[in-house]
Amino acid sequence: MIPNVVVWVSTILSVLVQAQALYFHIGETERKCFIEEIPDETTVAGNYRVELYDPRTKGFMPSNPGIGMHVEVTDPSGQVLMSRVYSDKGKFLFTSHDPGEHVICLYSNSTAWFSGSQLRVHLDIQVGEHAVDYANVAQKEKLTELQLRIRQLLDQVEQIQKEQNYQRYREERFRATSESTNSRVLWWSLLQTIILLSMGFWQMRHLKSFFQAKKLV
């Protein structure tokens, strides 16, 4: 009973922290990719903002409107879910179809607009119910505060179920990998044993033939 409680609590914690805010630097030809483990049928939203390095102030300033970012998302099977060019700041949104590691890549849409300087990209990735704009939902569907809170709780429960299903999927995949590895190790051990026995049998026959040729037997 205790392991189930641990899995449930860890799943709740993983759902509650599905928001990552960070920033990184890229050059004009660089490509930055991030791997997100996402359950199936889960909405992911990313907000980003680009700043351009100013050598005069030796700091990062708001970038020019002409600077844009190319966002590309690849699913676990290698299929491109989204590939689109955005402006210097914006929001991208996609929904996963298969569980597993999704690769989110960002790179500049040009190679000659900032003469080898650096960009600082602020990125905030939100997964699951964190990606939903509930203020917009409440306004569009005319929900009361209580109805909106119930909607949020239902979405959280649904996301927890998706996370648990994904954890089961990972466990099954790990078990299949372990069983496959154990099976290969077993067959390799058997093959080694057969080779050693065959070599021993051949050596015995060779020695017997040698002694018979020398008339020692």
Can you characterise this structure?
The structure is a single chain. The chain is of the alpha+beta class and 217 residues long. It folds into two domains: 22-131, Jelly Rolls (Sandwich); 132-206. The protein contains three helices and nine strands. Strands 1, 3, 4, 7 and 9 form a five-stranded antiparallel sheet that branches. It has a four-stranded antiparallel sheet with strand order 2-8-5-6. A hairpin with a 5-residue loop joins strand 5 (69-74) and strand 6. The termini are far apart.
How does the major sheet shape up? Answer: 5 strands, antiparallel
Helix content: 40-55%
How would you describe the shape? elongated
Radius of gyration: 29 Å
The CATH class of the largest domain:
Mainly Beta
Class from helix and strand fractions: alpha+beta
Number of domains: 2
Q: pLDDT under 50 segments (min length 5)? A: 1-19
CATH topology of the largest domain: Jelly Rolls
Mean pLDDT across all amino acids: 78
Organism: Cyprideis torosa
Family: Belongs to the EMP24/GP25L family.
Protein name: GOLD domain-containing protein
Keywords: Developmental protein, Membrane, Signal, Transmembrane, Transmembrane helix
